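Q: A reviewer asked whether we had any structural model of the full assembly, not just the individual parts. We don't, so I'm hoping you can provide one. Inputs are below.
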Amino acid sequence: MNSIAPLDDERSGPPPLPLAGQAPPMRADAARNRARLLEAAARLVAERGADCLTMEAVATAASVGKGTVFRRFGDRTGLIMALLDRSERLYQEAFISGPPPLGPGAPPVRRLEAFGVATLRHLDAHRELLLSAEPEACRRLDFAPRHVRVAHVTALLREARAGGDTELLAESLVGYLDVALLHHLTQQRGMTLDRLEAGWQDLVARVARPA
Amino acid sequence: MNSIAPLDDERSGPPPLPLAGQAPPMRADAARNRARLLEAAARLVAERGADCLTMEAVATAASVGKGTVFRRFGDRTGLIMALLDRSERLYQEAFISGPPPLGPGAPPVRRLEAFGVATLRHLDAHRELLLSAEPEACRRLDFAPRHVRVAHVTALLREARAGGDTELLAESLVGYLDVALLHHLTQQRGMTLDRLEAGWQDLVARVARPA
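A: Here is a predicted structure for the entire assembly that you could use as a starting point for your response.
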């Protein structure tokens, strides 16, 4: 299972759930080096696009050996996940413990509506990086951030007493919040993000009401 | 846009929709050679699994040069699509012009139910090959057989007067009929195909009723 958490050699054992505030402390110099590599990587993406983000290019930009980049991030996907880590944590915090309607306190259907909109905007903001890091078909859905989304939607559907096979209904809803689908609909079929957000509200209204 | 139709050098211009009975005639010797290559490819998959299906392995098995295989099928995806061509045509014929409830003549919601079951079984039967031919994220959804499915589901939702943004509801339903999702749910999460089929019926009942 992939994890959104970066693959750090300073860290022992696999990270648990990719939630905010769970990273063990890192030595100060290791943290500084890591931050410097991520800064170089972010600059590369901003200047030349996600396609040009390679382990080699990051090593050159940060004036370190290629091996250092591989040791720090494992592979290109690990590097991209580390780049996305901060915004993924903020996004997860918002729906797990932030203010309503996205966070706890609002009715479940209202939270589902807000969750879809937040997710579509998160995917849209990082579309290029997420697309370029997408794993092959066999591993694509066995991916920590996606597990967190399915668990969240399942819990809200249960709370809304939607009935039916809640897990499969959640899979179906989360399938709408997919970066490749968003890319296809907005870039290849010319739909607006507003239209996708309205489509999500309609889908939730249909799926979440008791059968 | 990918097409399910094989890339034949005997054919001029891009093929139209990948429906049954539309392939232009092929010279007898070209057709024989193509059939021989496909036979070798099918044998390779049966004996060694989809992962071992390479252009080189097919050339060796059929005792021809690698260039012949590339000229005939374009690339590995083209080869796999040619292998899947016959069953894709039978599957498409069944829902476009076959007997009800899958084909015309049954009420639209009944046809949607039958369509999902037929598609899940089609995907399950060819899971390995379809997974190994899946294009990268940016092109994955811009794929002829998927366009045919979305158009079919859109038409049935309109006929059922489901209301809402019919195109987006169709995208969401077709998203459930995805080979990577089927693989994840059956192979990585241990769900049965029966459960997925029941989940589809429930999803259709919710999505197709007027909002």
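A: Points you may want to mention in the reply: The interface with chain B takes residues 131-132, 134, 136-138, 140-142, 164-165, 168-169, 171-172, 175-176, 178-181, 183-185, 188, 191, 195-196, 198-199, 202-203, 205-207, 209, 211 of chain A (CB under 8 Å). Residues 162 and 210 of chain A are 4 Å apart (CA to CA).
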